[in-house]
Amino acid sequence: MATKRKLKLKSPIIGILKVIGILLLIVLGCFIFYRKQINDLKKIGYSELASKNILLKWKKEDVLEIGKNKTLNIAFESEAYKEKYFDSYSKIKYKDSKYLIENINALIKKGYNNEQITMILYHGSGEDVRKFAKRDKVRYLEEFYTTDYAKIKYYDRYVKYMDESREDEETSILLVNLDMDKEEYEDPIAVKDFSYDMLVNKHRKLEEKFQPSNLVKINKEDASDEGMKANRTAYVAFKQMKKQAESEGYHLVINSAYRDYDDQTEIMETYRKLYGDAYVEKYVLKPGFSEHQTGLAFDIGSTDTKVFANSDEYTWIVDNCYKFGFIYRFKKEYEDITGIRHEAWHYRYVGRKIAKEIYDKRLSYEEYYAMHIEK
Ligand SMILES: [Zn+2]
Questions:
Q1: How far apart are alpha carbons 101 and 112 in whole angstroms?
Q2: What total of structural domains would you count in the chain?
Q3: 260 Cβ contact partners less than 8 Å away, ≥ 6 residues apart
Q4: Comparing C-alpha atoms, which of 95, 139, 87, 96 is closest to residue 114?
Q5: How do 252-256 and 326-328 pair as beta strands?
Q6: Which residues are in the CB-under-5-Å shell of ion ligand 1?
Q7: Mean pLDDT score, 305-321
Q8: Cα–ligand 1 centroid distance for 71 (angstroms)
């Protein structure tokens, strides 16, 4: 009797336990199956979050068929994902930028096709594209944006410049990127950080308090005057160049190097007194717009000949300065772009790699900068 009672007592508990056990197994089975699906997607490059959303939206088969796709991955991570644009997401090339999916959605809505959207994304930041996507569909997309360094934010300026100047697309892009559709000194870009490839000119201004890094004193034997300073790396490069020149029988000397904002103001006023406003306006750079404030520019002379352009040193330096990281900054053929009359004596340190490219390609620094450095 006692055994029977015991069994009777046990059986409902066992039954419940069995059911719970089976349920647990089912849940575990489902979980293992779910994890396997997630892992299938992760294996081909989708994130955990994207993979979860792919399953949630019943898109696993389509995604597996496409394979790894960075844009799709971001789309499935994003709350802006739209089912109807799935195909476009999979065809638009990924760009690491803010608002990527929001921007793609907006551009599709404006009527751009997948290739055009890829093109637009490539030529601007997330912020730029966001603004661009708000305007009506533009007419001349392919005309401008097959050029690498064209910027989506300058679309209107390109159209206007081309219209007024009758230059071709590529030239218009380059010149607008260089702000040459603006007046000199008008609304300049503020250059804040020191770098060896920095560009300072009549459209790009240094602040009054800007100082180059690593300013060092120039030795008496390297300069025509005492108390000059320059950036250390640029000065070391000059000394190497001078040494090489000397070994070949040429004698270089620094006539001017780093000049701060106040020095430039002083120069301007001195010339104003000597030659008047018109001269200063034309030939003297306003404070903040001179490369000498970067500590990377040198006015170089010859110890043998008074006019540098007539010296053997000049002939030597034109073809050798790039080997030491310097460029012949204000060549005659660049006058239209630099806005500076030919200066045989002014050399700018940019580092060997850039200097060689500029020498080989015969570019002004402005052109090189617009094509290769500016983002
Ligand atoms: Zn100079």
A1: 14
A2: 1
A3: 211, 293
A4: 87
A5: unpaired
A6: 299, 346
A7: 95
A8: 49
Between CA 323 and CA 311 the distance in angstroms is: 20
- ∠105-110-116 over CA atoms, to 5°? 80
In tens, the pLDDT along 33-72 reads 999 999 999 999 999 999 999 999 999 999 999 999 999 9
**307 CA to middle of ligand 1, Å?**
15
The SS3 assignment for 54 reads helix
Side-chain-side CA neighbours of 121 within 13 Å: the count stands at 26
> Does residue 90 sit within a domain?
no
Cα 198 to middle of ligand 1, angstroms: 16
CB 152 within 8 A of CB 145: yes
Q: What is the DSSP string of 290-340?
A: -GGGGT-EEEEEESS-SSGGGSHHHHHHHHHGGGGTEEETT-GGGHHHH-S
- Ligand 1: distance of its center to the CA of 47 in Å? 54
Cα(153) to centroid(ligand 1), Å? 33
The domain that holds 306 is classified in CATH as: 3.30.1380.10
Q: Is residue 119 part of a domain?
A: no
Element (H, E) at 89: helix 86-91
Residue 287 lies in a domain: yes
d(CA 256, ligand 1 centre) in Å:
7
| Domain span at 331 | 189-373
Residue tagged 């500590």 (tokens): 295
The Cα angle at residue 347 between residues 341 and 351, in degrees rounded to 5: 135
Amino acid at 119: M
**Two tokens, residue 281:** 């306006």
Which residue type sits at 264? Q
Instruction: List Cβ neighbours of 29 (8 Å cut-off, separation of 6 or more).
Output: none
Question: Under a CB-based contact definition with an 8 Å cutoff, are residues 122 and 71 in contact?
Answer: no
Is residue 71 included in any domain, yes or no?
A: no
Provide the pLDDT confidence category of residue 118 given band limits of 50, 70 and 90.
very high
CB 86 within 8 A of CB 109: no
372 to 83, 144, 257, 369: CA distances (angstroms): 38, 17, 26, 5
